Amino acid sequence: MDRIDARVSDARASALAIEAEVSRVVIGQPRVIRLVNTAVFARGHVLLQGDVGVGKTTLLRAFARVLGGAYARTEGTIDLMPNDLIYYTYISAEGRPAVERGPLIEHGEELAIFFFNEINRARPQVHSLLLRVMAERSVSAFNRDWRFPHLLVFADRNRVEREETFEIASAARDRFMMEVTIDVPADTDDRRALMFDPRYHDTDSLIESLAPGLLDYRELNGVAAQIQRSVQASDALQKYALDLWRATAAPADYGVKVSDLDTAQLMLAGASPRGMSMLLRAARVAAWLDGRSYATPEDLQSVFEVTIAHRLVYQPVYEMRRHEIAGPLIAGILANVAAP
């Protein structure tokens, strides 16, 4: 089996150590940890979806800890405004108005992970600011540009409570490399530990128990670029990826069926060029994590749903049912598009 070069291989050892370390405090979520780790080394932003209290904050704080970078968080509310991410005002002890940096610029260039909790509760104006930060990794404030060269944005959508929410536009969803769902662990022993083991009841102590800086967050951009250069995609794999792309826009042409729906009339738009680029970036990292210098169809398949499903745009009559349609549609595409 072909192997990657020594320098990238060393980084892989660190990546696997990161997964093992995070798994000490986030139990019963190996797939979620692998996907987030894939996004970290592919340098892609992530949408998270899950019920309240499933460990999203703990997961992201754990990754920030083992990478050694700064972590910041904000809560989406209906009255949140863009400036609230950049600064906040208060009355000082001397009784005078004062201004402090907001969560987005508080840590400057050291910011590695920014968590926007319940992003769908925030107004579209806030989404617009976040999109600029995601795309350009910079923002203007206090008469200067603040740059975040190492930043990844994670945003959570509460799938239970829909009151006073603003659905994220398709163009905004397309900026996220992945959408990852976090469910309650299925294993009884994991559930028992979360309920009865006191160490899981103190998140601060739990995070502090992790080894810090297993891989310097400032090295991630360079490592990510090396991975993309080192992991090859054969002509056959490229054809397979192109067929998958076409199938997202015209599933009926590939014989894809979804219950009683007419798949010929289902889609308004398939995956974007950006989305397919992100699919290949994630697939290369998946291959790298498995120790290979070439991507396989299995690598594409392992990240296809999380990188593509949230990008698809259905005809308006079907859009409200996207969460029930997406899974069967993606499964149908993978089952009907011939792999090399």
What is this structure's SSE topology?
Layout: H1 6-23, H2 30-42, E1 46-50, H3 56-67, E2 70-75, H4 82-86, E3 87-91, E4 97-101, E5 111-117, H5 124-136, E6 138-141, E7 144-147, E8 152-157, H6 170-173, E9 178-182, H7 188-196, H8 203-208, H9 220-230, H10 235-249, E10 267-269, H11 273-289, H12 297-308, E11 313-314, H13 316-319, H14 322-336
Parallel strand pairs: 1-8, 1-9, 2-5, 5-8
Antiparallel strand pairs: 3-4, 6-7, 10-11
Question: Short summary of the structure?
Answer:
The protein is of the alpha/beta class and 340 residues long.
Can you tell me about this structure?
With 340 residues, the chain is α/β, with parallel strands linked by helices. The protein folds into 2 domains: 218 residues, P-loop containing nucleotide triphosphate hydrolases (Rossmann fold, 3-Layer(aba) Sandwich); 106 residues, Helicase, Ruva Protein, domain 3. It is built from 14 helices and 11 strands. It has a 5-stranded parallel β-sheet. A two-stranded antiparallel sheet has the order 3-4. Strand 3 and strand 4 form a beta hairpin. The two termini are 18 Å apart. The mean pLDDT is 92.
Q: Please report the distance between the alpha carbons of the first and last residues.
A: 18 Å
| Elements, N to C (H/E) | HHEHEHEEEHEEEHEHHHHEHHEHH
How many structural domains are formed by the residues? 2
What do the pLDDT scores average to? Answer: 92
Q: Strand order across the biggest sheet?
A: 2-5-8-1-9
Number of helices: 14
Please compute the radius of gyration using only Cα atoms: 21 Å
Going by CATH, the architecture of the largest domain would be: 3-Layer(aba) Sandwich
Low-pLDDT stretches are none
Instruction: Write out the CATH superfamily name of the largest domain.
Output: P-loop containing nucleotide triphosphate hydrolases
Shape: globular
Oligomerization category of the chains in this entry: single chain
What is the structural class? alpha/beta
